């Protein structure tokens, strides 16, 4: 139940067991998240006894079957070796592949997204993604990139370079269009009181104000 509650939508997180089960039945992204959480828990578990190690092998075999079933029914595959914070929201089913990446809390991922490893042999690396990131449909993020907090990656974007906090990037290759952040796209329980988000909103507002002042000064000089 704890693993399920990690990624429950806000309205179900506030309800009891019945709401959680209902969300699991109707949300295919939540099904994939739960299977990932179970697999990751097995991967990081290091039993000290022979019986525990046998149980771990059986659990890994069961997870393999569950993961392949979820992949065939939803199109979503999340590598159990990925390190993903709580609040993962996969908005839609359909051909979403998440490799052994590092990702922060409260990420929103839409459909047909690919996040994984790339690079030359011996130099292959996976992305490191911050908190409260929104990733649009068809986006591709591969290689040893760093994606900051509160980033928006637009539909069909191909990210080939690291992106700073609050960047909004579109295109192939992705280019930064603004620094408005993901504050309107990523919503979750307690967002208004999240200290990290509050600080990020303040920084984004300050940056927008500074940019507007610079543009006004440039127009005045012209």
TrEMBL record:
It comes from the Bacteria. Pfam families: Hexapep (PF00132). One of its GO terms (cellular component) is cytoplasm. Residues 203-222 are annotated as: Disordered. It catalyses: L-serine + acetyl-CoA = O-acetyl-L-serine + CoA. GO terms for biological process: cysteine biosynthetic process from serine. Residues 203-213 have a biased composition (Low complexity). Belongs to the transferase hexapeptide repeat family. PANTHER family: SERINE ACETYLTRANSFERASE. This is Serine acetyltransferase. It comes from Motilibacter rhizosphaerae.
């Amino acid at each position: 139940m704890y693993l399920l509650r990690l990624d429950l939508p806000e309205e179900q997180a506030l309800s009891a067991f019945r709401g959680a089960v209902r969300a699991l039945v109707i949300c295919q992204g939540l099904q994939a998240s739960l299977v990932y959480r179970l697999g990751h828990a097995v991967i990081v578990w290091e039993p000290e006894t022979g019986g525990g190690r046998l149980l771990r092998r059986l659990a890994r075999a069961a997870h393999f079957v569950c993961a392949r079933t979820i992949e065939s029914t939803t199109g979503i595959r999340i590598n159990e070796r990925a390190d993903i914070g709580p609040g993962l929201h996969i908005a839609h089913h359909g051909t979403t592949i998440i490799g052994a990446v590092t990702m922060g809390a409260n990420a929103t991922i839409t459909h047909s997204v690919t996040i994984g490893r790339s690079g030359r042999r011996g130099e292959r690396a996976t992305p490191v993604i911050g908190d409260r990131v929104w990733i649009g449909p068809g986006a591709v993020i591969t290689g040893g990139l760093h994606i900051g907090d509160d980033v928006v990656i637009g539909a069909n974007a191909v990210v080939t370079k690291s992106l700073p906090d609050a960047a909004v990037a579109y295109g192939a290759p992705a280019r930064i269009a603004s620094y408005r952040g993901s504050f309107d796209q990523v919503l979750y329980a307690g967002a208004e009181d999240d200290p990290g988000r509050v600080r990020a909103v303040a920084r984004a507002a300050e940056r927008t104000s500074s940019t507007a002042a610079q543009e006004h000064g440039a127009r005045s000089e012209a």
